[in-house]
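User: I'm writing a tutorial on reading structure tokens. Could you give me a worked example: one chain, its sequence, then its tokens, then a sentence or two explaining what the tokens reveal?
Assistant: Sure. Here is the example chain.
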Amino acid sequence: MILQILVLSGILLAESLVSPPPLRPGSAPTAVLRQDDPAADWGVDEEDDLPTDDDDEDDVYQEDIAISHARLGRQEADCGGCAFTIDLSCPHHFEKRSGYWHRLADCLVPSYGLLDMARKAEGTVCILTYSNLPSLNLFLPVLIPDLLEKGARIIDYAEPCASSLTAHAVDPSVTDQVEKHYMDEFPRLQNITGRYPIDWTANVRALQRDAVKAVSSPGNTQLVLLDRPHSVSRVLAPKAKASLAGVLKGIAGAGQIGYANYDGSMNVPDTIRLFMNAAGIIGYHGAAFVNALFTTRPSCVMEITTYNDQAGTVEWRTNEWLAKEHVLLSWHKVHIQLQTLVDINEAKLVDQTLTKRNKWIKNLRYVNLLGSDLAAVDEGLKKCLTGINR
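And here are its predicted structure tokens:
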């Protein structure tokens, strides 16, 4: 039973109680959320016209690699004396919550307001998390050392004693891909002591406030190129990467700022430090763009994406809604033709449903950039940087 496993969520910053935010871009009303289905475990969508953003399959981030060989081996948790319990177990995103993008954008940020409430609480704070790895447990010690130093406990929500706790929760109905069975039960869950709307913008600000405290000093102002050379898909072809890096280094040099590559090999503090002062974040669509949440200055995001059709009328994927939650981001897209991807991968384009085509494009190994694509990045980034530096 869902009540027995204590599926809970998080609370919000107090300011969000005054004016509930609109639906998150890209999210679906609860009434049309995807049903639970065994096929979901295999990445099969029920609706051919509702492709999902499964960037959780990115598996080349340092914390994922480090923890992939770890054994769960939990010791029995102590739930006694929990005076104020918050939940970061992300039950509304059960299927994908361990993916790098979803861990931050769909689990941590929606519930981040909990932490301010916990800091004001009297007595022992208990934080419910989830057990399937990777989890939030590598981010929390970096972001909330003050709470942990005061004796806050991190408790796996699957621990037997967790069912005795009552926790504060957010209403996750406006998050992406909410598990329908959870939302059906949400109004009746007896272990939730309060239900609150989500203020995305306030939560991002709170995350950034803690991120600033987490690093000794921010990195230099620089342009950051995203690429995952060891990934199984969406890797910049060597010549394309060299050409794009040349464009970015030229812009950086002219603007007297730095240039850096991000390939997912950094630990959490170093990742925060790199993105905190990023003047620009450039790359092909993927989970690494979620690190833009840590950027604390006006920043230009150049997201390279493609189309779902050869005619160039149906956009493939974008994460531009992130800029709606993070007001310092100026989001721009450069669309490359689908045939460019087909050619570099020596693939064959066949008739497919939108969902199958969506996933097929995601799994292509290499990304190529033509001269016109590089020129679009060059022009767009220069124009954006001029605008944010005025």
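What the tokens reveal: The chain has a mean pLDDT of 82. Residues 217-388 form a domain with the Rossmann fold fold (CATH 3.40.50).
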